[in-house]
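Need a sequence for this fold. Nothing fancy.
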């Protein structure tokens, strides 16, 4: 099997995912998953599509991560891995879609508007 690649995005985070056959090693920006995401919850988020398909030990995954915070990065990696797994085996798509791993979460930070302190917040109104 050759390298299968996919892109996952969430908020400001972009994950370029490269999947090859292997032993279940996940490397993000040349660091082990456990070192990149010390939180077990974020490690669980990244591994969710693999756990669902029981393919945790089948593939080696290399991820180039850019932008965003740790939560957005973990979810971007999850989307990228799910997309790569669908490229490898299209029959897995309904299973992953049912869990919501294929859907790109479109919510991003709203821009700040001129004449106010934030995106929605207004300066305090003064009558006099």
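Here you go.
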């Amino acid at each position: 099997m050759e390298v299968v690649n996919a892109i996952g995005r969430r908020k400001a985070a972009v994950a370029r995912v490269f999947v090859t056959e292997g032993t279940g090693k996940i490397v993000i920006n040349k660091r082990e998953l456990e070192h990149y995401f010390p939180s077990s919850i974020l490690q669980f988020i990244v591994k969710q599509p693999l756990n669902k398909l029981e393919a945790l030990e089948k593939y080696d995954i290399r991820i180039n991560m850019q932008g965003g915070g740790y939560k957005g990065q973990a979810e971007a990696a999850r989307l990228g891995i799910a997309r790569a797994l669908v490229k490898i085996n299209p029959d897995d798509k309904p299973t992953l879609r049912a869990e919501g791993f294929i859907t790109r979460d479109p919510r991003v930070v709203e821009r700040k508007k001129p004449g106010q302190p934030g995106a929605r917040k207004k300066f305090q109104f003064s009558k006099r």
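For context: The chain has one domain: 4-99.
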